[in-house]
Design goal:
Blueprint lengths: L1 H8 L5 E4 L6 E3 H17 L4 E4 L11 E9 L1 H5 L6 E8 L2 E9 L5 E5 L5 E2 L2 E2 L12 E4 L5 H14 L5 E4 L3 H9 L5 E5 L3 H13 L3 E3 L8 E5 L1 H10 L5
Parallel strand pairs: 3-4, 10-11, 10-12
Antiparallel strand pairs: 1-2, 4-5, 5-6, 6-7, 7-8, 8-9, 12-14, 13-14
Length: 241
């Protein structure tokens, strides 16, 4: 429903305001999309807590929390570039138990739960199974903070000679889903927020990826990769600060 709504606004987006930096934009559609999702979640699962990117935390007492990114890839959306997602995850007592990511432009839906395989439009998916980093395609993204971006450029400089190539496509959630589907062999990004990766991490993990979330490494760094290349990938980006 929300992805359908965002799709209708494609090509007509305008920046409403900025958040952490002048490049961290928000459109009216981001806010409207989150309101639409919240109304639906409140109707279908009353009493839930809802944590979203654009609106204030909504309290609840049933033990369920929904983690919502109403548009993942807002800069792409603003520029009418075709990599835009909507991400929703569910947690119970702090543990992510289900997630779904919709590709707004392609109309694909990736999903998984803690006790099921990852799926794309209902079809089971799995990571690529690449065994060597030099033959692996790696996705990444960059912080909105200029100083942090300079450090991340150094990481890309270390990475680029060691892998097949690097892609920066502007949506953490879709990058993670593409690792799950074997379209990327690995992905890493620093300074992502929980609403960026909550659903995507679960989908990648249930598709067979090795996943390391920011909370576990103290570097605000999210990593997902086919298992055979994960250690080498992790080592290459390990100097990031």
């Amino acid at each position: 429903m929300s992805a359908d709504f965002v799709r209708t606004q494609t090509g007509a987006a305008r920046a409403a305001h900025t958040k952490s930096s002048p490049t961290d934009v928000v459109t009216d559609t981001d806010v409207d999309s989150e309101r639409l999702i919240r109304r639906e979640l409140t109707h279908r699962c009353p009493g839930s807590r809802i944590q979203g990117e654009e609106l204030e935390l909504a309290g609840g007492d049933n033990g369920i929390e929904w983690i919502v990114d109403p548009i993942d890839g807002t800069v792409n959306f603003l520029y009418d570039l075709p990599v835009v997602g909507v991400s929703i995850a569910a947690s119970i007592d702090g543990v992510i138990v289900a997630g779904a990511v919709a590709d707004v432009v392609r109309g694909e839906v990736f999903s998984a739960s803690a006790d099921s395989e990852a799926k794309l439009d209902g079809r089971t998916i799995a990571v690529s199974g690449k065994t060597e980093l030099p033959q692996s395609l790696i996705g990444t993204g960059f912080s909105y903070d200029a100083d942090r971006r300079a450090q991340q450029a150094e990481t890309v400089g270390r990475m680029l000679p060691r892998c097949r190539d690097i892609r920066c496509m502007g949506s953490a959630a879709l990058n993670l889903c593409w690792v799950a589907a074997g379209r990327l062999d690995g992905y890493y990004e620093q300074d992502t927020k929980i609403y960026d990766y909550a659903a995507g991490n679960l989908i990648a993990e249930r598709a067979g990826a090795t996943v390391e979330a920011p909370a576990s490494n103290g570097l605000h760094l999210d990593i997902a990769a086919t298992p055979a290349i994960f250690a080498e990938l992790r080592e290459l980006i390990g100097a990031i600060r």
